[in-house]
């Protein structure tokens, strides 16, 4: 379900002429914050979602594929 949401977010960012890598960097930031547990509300929210590092990896793969197809 989160992959679906992330895929939609990437497409919306592209349609808005925004760099979808921003979402990737956001997930990396959340992953970093959750591992240091700087914000307990974020850590609590993340407990019901896939780990941000996994989501970041999926986003990077998805964005890379989209860019590769766009060049063809």
Secondary-structure content class: mainly alpha
Based on CA atoms alone, the radius of gyration comes out at: 13 Å
Tell me the number of strands. 0
Question: What is the arithmetic mean of pLDDT?
Answer: 84
Overall outline: elongated
Question: How many alpha or pi helices?
Answer: 4
Largest sheet: none
C-alpha end-to-end distance = 29 Å
List unreliable stretches of 5+ residues: none
Percentage of residues in DSSP E strands? under 5%
Helix content: over 70%
List SSEs in N-to-C order. Answer: HHHH
How many domains comprise the coordinates?
A: 1
Give the structure's gist in a few sentences:
The protein has 72 residues and is an all-alpha fold. The protein has helices spanning 2-15, 21-36, 40-46, 52-71. The protein contains four helices and no strands.
Could you describe the 3D structure shown?
The chain has 72 residues and is mostly helical. It has one domain. Helix content is 79%, strand content 0%. α1 packs across α4 and α2 packs antiparallel against α4. The radius of gyration is 13 Å and the shape is elongated. It starts with a helix and ends with a helix. The mean pLDDT is 84.
Please supply descriptive tags for the structure shown above.
mainly alpha
